[in-house]
Amino acid sequence: MASSDIFDVLNIQNPRTSNPGSSAGTPVPSRTPKPQVTGIQRELYNLLGDNTPPVAVQKGSKFKDKLRAIAKPSPWTLAEYEVKPSVKLLHWVKGSKELVEQQPQKSSFSKYNTKLTIPAFSEEEYLSFMGYTTPGSNPLKEWDYEEVQHLFDLCRKYDLRWFIIQDRYEGKLFGTLEDLKDAFYTVCHRYFLAKEPANPLVASLNFSKEKELERKRYLQRLLSRSAAEIAEEEALIVESKKFEMAAKKTLSERETLLRLLDSPNSDKPVSQFLTSQGMTQLYNSLLSDKSRKRKHDQVVPENPWMKQQQQFAQQKQHMQHLQELKSSNSHIQNQVKKTKKQKQEMQIAVKRKADSEYAEQLLQNFTAEERKSLGVQCHGEKLPPGAFLRSSKISTFKAATQSKVAATLQELGLPTRPAMPTMEVINRHEMLLSRITNLLDLKKQLDKLEAEKDIRKP
């Protein structure tokens, strides 16, 4: 290895080449000026330097690799299959010629080639169920058998596609589409009526030619309307809806007014006062009734809710009077000066006591049925503010006791929490829980005594 190579590996400058005297005799090669680089190219040049790394280009094929299948490919055979007795086609079938049968197979889609069941009949049957040969019968229409048979053949061929049937029909007996439908459904109705009179589908074969023509005329008039007529109809519909809403509102206001008014003819129905004449008659009768003295002949039934409200007002006045007397007496007895905070506490305590006494006074005059109907209940415990669920107030126990209570309820076939937690259900549920806990305590004591008894046995 030369010394210059060692200096190059160690990145040390060769002192021989660095000596200017030794390099004076050697000619210096002329360097061509490089073009000045600007912009992004200049920044890339500063980052990369002269030694730009080459881009690795991998040559890849754009085509797929050759399929390397180990198994032998299965053969396919161009076999014949039958679409119709008159139509036979070819298709590829997986398998060899030996496996494929020589006879043409039916198409797998032939099961979807369904046809409508159109009745077929002979000329004698046609004449019999149409009533042309029966003496004394009244035939509906004189239709030739050949024309009817031609119509049924077209219906059977084109699956009741009536526009195609009308286009293919070459007879002279039935001209329009409605005539063709009328003839077909009339003959089918007579045929099934003679063959299966108890069949409920016979009634569905009735075809009304007049209704069909009227429907088409109405549809033609509907489609031939102009834009102005359509806008006018929409405006009329909106106005009619407004009138209907106004009529409903007027009727409801009249009913409310008639309920509030003391009508002299209370035994008459309200419907007679819904007209303008009835309202005028009612107004005149009310004016005449107001001018003379009222005779309270009819006994007005007592309203229990009004009676209870009157009782509440009387009791409240009585309690307020008693409270005023008590406050005056306490004011006379206590002449000692109190602070502002003590006065506020005293007022709050007096107010609570008055409310509790008022509630107790109200509840004393109620029977159990009245309390139940009004939903009034005197709670012994302090309730939290706001609404709460009754089921949240069900008694809870320790974990061990709670599991035993749940097992007992499960044996009784009852849920842990009631499905309908009304007041009565919650009270009964609380009673049941207390009895279950008492029973569990008794059982625990009994087991303890029996264990002691077994220990004491000699």
Give a topology summary.
Elements: H1 3-9, H2 15-18, H3 40-48, E1 76-84, E2 87-94, E3 105-106, H4 123-130, H5 145-158, H6 162-168, H7 177-195, H8 209-223, H9 227-260, H10 276-291, H11 304-333, H12 340-364, H13 368-374, H14 399-412, H15 423-456
Parallel strand pairs: 1-3
Antiparallel strand pairs: 1-2
InterPro entries: DAMP1_SANT-like, Swc4/Dmap1
Keywords: Chromatin regulator, Coiled coil, Nucleus, Transcription, Transcription regulation
Biased composition (Polar residues): 11-25
What does this structure look like?
The protein is mainly alpha-helical. Among the domains are: 123-222, Orthogonal Bundle (Arc Repressor Mutant, subunit A), CATH 1.10.10.60; 233-283, no CATH class; 309-327 and 343-377, no CATH class; 397-456, no CATH class. It contains 15 helices and 3 strands. The chain has a 3-stranded mixed β-sheet, with no helix packed on it. A hairpin with a 2-residue loop joins strand 1 and strand 2. Helix 5 (145-158) packs across helix 6, helix 11 runs antiparallel to helix 12 (340-364) and helix 14 (399-412) crosses helix 15 (423-456). The longest helix has 34 residues, at 227-260.
In short:
The protein has 458 residues and is mainly α. It has 15 helices and 3 strands.
CATH superfamily of the domain at 123-222: Homeodomain-like
Q: Quickly give the structural class.
A: mainly alpha
SSE order, as H and E? Answer: HHHEEEHHHHHHHHHHHH
Describe the sheet with the most strands.
Answer: 3 strands, mixed
* Strand residue content: under 5%
What top-tier CATH class of the domain at 123-222 fits best?
A: Mainly Alpha
The CATH architecture of the domain at 123-222: Orthogonal Bundle
Q: Indicate the CATH topology of the domain at 123-222.
A: Arc Repressor Mutant, subunit A
Radius of gyration: 54 Å
Q: Any low-confidence stretches, pLDDT <50, length ≥5?
A: 21-25, 135-139, 293-301
Distance between the termini: 113 Å
Number of helices: 15
Rough outline: extended
- Say how many strands there are: 3
Q: Output mean pLDDT.
A: 76
Helical amount among residues, as a percent range? Answer: 40-55%
Strand order of the largest sheet: 2-1-3
